[in-house]
Write a structure and sequence with these properties.
126 residues, mainly beta, 4-stranded antiparallel β-sheet
Length: 126
């Protein structure tokens, strides 16, 4: 099955930008829906953004809409999350996920995804 590896996390200042990458191997991201979630200790994984398979429709959590942008580079088999104007509520472990047969409202539910990366830490300096 496909394996996912996130990278790009790091210490940034509020208002700064950061781009996360999710490199896939053993399978193609282009044939599945893909998503980003984030998680802090003691809390569930919260939906951030997703790309719906076949429709290529983008979905965003209200908390990041207008600031974050999800994209997929099929040639590089890599998923990206461009994060702009980072806010104090954004620090978390960010995880990418993929699932071949999920769409619509299910895209925002972590329980629908079976393949996850290990996560990359995004703290914010203060």
């Amino acid at each position: 099955q496909v394996q996912l590896v996130e990278s790009g996390g790091g210490l940034v200042q509020p208002g700064a930008s950061l781009r996360l990458s999710c490199a896939a191997s053993g399978g193609s991201l282009s044939t599945s829906s893909v998503a980003w979630f984030r998680q802090v200790p003691g809390k569930e994984r919260d939906f951030v953004a997703a790309v719906e398979h076949t429709s290529e429709r983008r979905y965003y959590a209200d908390s990041v809409k207008g600031r974050f942008s999800i994209s997929r580079d099929n040639a590089k088999n890599t998923l990206y999350l461009q994060m702009d104007r980072l806010q104090p509520e954004d620090p978390a472990v960010y995880l990418c996920a993929t699932e071949p047969a999920v769409w619509g409202s299910a895209l925002s539910k972590a329980s629908y995804y079976n393949t996850w990366g290990q996560g990359t830490q995004v703290p914010v300096s203060s």
